[in-house]
């Protein structure tokens, strides 16, 4: 790289880094926490996720719903989560009498409610909102998205700045001289670990754009399928009102039918319709697959619990399959703990990079000011 181009690249790296630094710090730090969300939450609140004792038989889900409606005054059910693990509790999300979304944990063997929390006030709900929206909804989503995009350019420009002029200097660029001055250690840390992290952080930052920009998500579908994204989680045809099934076996019949259609081991999520036109959506994650987040779909009549349509994962378009894979790639869960640890470490480094980069800039600015002062 010639001197003029390197100088221009340095300015791009500097000013994009300074303009996005604070947001990158927040997003990267919260992202590192979210990598181990399940493990941390389980450690802090074991009773919310694990039953005290495994029983012989589980209560029907409808019994659990009835308990919530009577003891917790839950009006509208939103989502029901059941798990293949016999030690896991059932998770239910519903609206209380004041219209607030509340999260409940229920022992499937006794039907007892073992925990509850307001969805928006749960620790990891706040962390996720901060990570994606900076707690200010759509404006925050735009800010984090633009900062992620800028950070991707910072990473690319940083890689070109890191690349040594001569191959013989490569070893120096790959190590941190820990016994040197603070200024040198800071520069080495920023530069060296930036090189080791650049590919992982580039993948994380680019996949993160999926939640910020619709054009980016649609771009994936156009690139792979040649068409815009189609809603696979929704049936377009209205549901005709029919005789209602006995509510004492309504949700349990949905779960049983899902397990019959998709007999593999998996966790099931039942989503209630948001309006009068849509059916009940059920997703069953295939736990026997190496790549996580492979869910098949089934639709049920919201009045009779009769199965309407099925969409096995194998029938998804390539675009849908890639979109499903983006979440485990972004969070580092794609290959279990090895990739989770990598995602955690590089996210922590990303949180430090605006700080170390700022210190480098301040140091150079001070040095330049001293030169000017001496010259005058």
From TrEMBL:
Domain of life: Bacteria
InterPro entries the record matches: PepSY-ass_TM (IPR005625)
Segments passing through the bilayer: 12-36, 142-163, 193-213, 341-362
Protein keywords: Membrane, Transmembrane, Transmembrane helix
PANTHER family assigned to the protein according to its UniProt record, in alphabetical order: BLL7967 PROTEIN, IRON-REGULATED INNER MEMBRANE PROTEIN-RELATED
Name this protein carries in UniProt: PepSY-associated TM helix domain-containing protein
């Amino acid at each position: 790289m010639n001197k003029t181009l390197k100088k221009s690249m340095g300015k791009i790296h500097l000013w994009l880094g300074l303009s996005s630094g604070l947001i990158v710090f927040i997003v990267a730090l919260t992202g590192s926490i979210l990598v181990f969300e399940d493990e941390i939450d389980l450690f802090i609140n074991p009773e919310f996720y694990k039953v005290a004792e495994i029983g012989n038989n589980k209560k029907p889900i409808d019994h659990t719903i009835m308990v919530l409606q009577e003891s917790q005054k839950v009006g509208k059910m939103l989502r029901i989560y059941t798990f293949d693990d016999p030690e896991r509790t059932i998770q239910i999300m519903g609206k209380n009498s004041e219209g607030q979304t509340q999260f409940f944990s229920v022992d499937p063997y006794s039907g007892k409610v073992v925990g509850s929390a307001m969805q928006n006030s749960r620790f990891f709900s706040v962390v996720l909102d901060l990570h994606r929206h900076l707690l200010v909804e759509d404006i925050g989503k735009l800010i984090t998205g633009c900062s992620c995009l800028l950070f991707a350019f910072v990473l690319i420009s940083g890689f070109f700045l890191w690349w040594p002029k001569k191959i013989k200097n490569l070893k120096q660029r790959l190590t941190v001289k820990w016994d040197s001055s603070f200024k040198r250690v800071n520069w080495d840390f920023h530069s060296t670990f930036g090189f080791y992290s650049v590919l992982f952080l580039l993948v994380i930052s680019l996949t993160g754009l999926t939640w910020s920009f619709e054009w980016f998500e649609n771009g994936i579908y156009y690139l792979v399928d040649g068409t815009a994204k189609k809603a696979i989680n929704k049936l377009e045809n209205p549901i005709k009102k029919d005789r209602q099934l006995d509510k004492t076996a309504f949700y349990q019949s949905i779960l049983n039918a899902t397990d019959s259609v998709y007999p593999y081991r998996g966790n099931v999520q039942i989503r209630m319709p948001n309006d009068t036109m849509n059916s009940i959506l059920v997703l069953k994650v295939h736990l026997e697959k190496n790549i996580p987040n492979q869910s098949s779909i089934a639709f049920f009549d919201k009045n009779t619990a009769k199965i309407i349509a099925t969409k096995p994962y194998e029938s998804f378009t390539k675009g849908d399959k890639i979109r499903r894979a983006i979440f485990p790639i972004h969070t580092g869960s794609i290959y279990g703990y090895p990739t989770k640890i990598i995602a955690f470490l590089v996210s922590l480094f990303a949180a430090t990079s605006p700080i170390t980069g700022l210190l480098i800039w301040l140091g150079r600015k001070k040095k330049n000011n001293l030169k000017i002062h001496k010259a005058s």
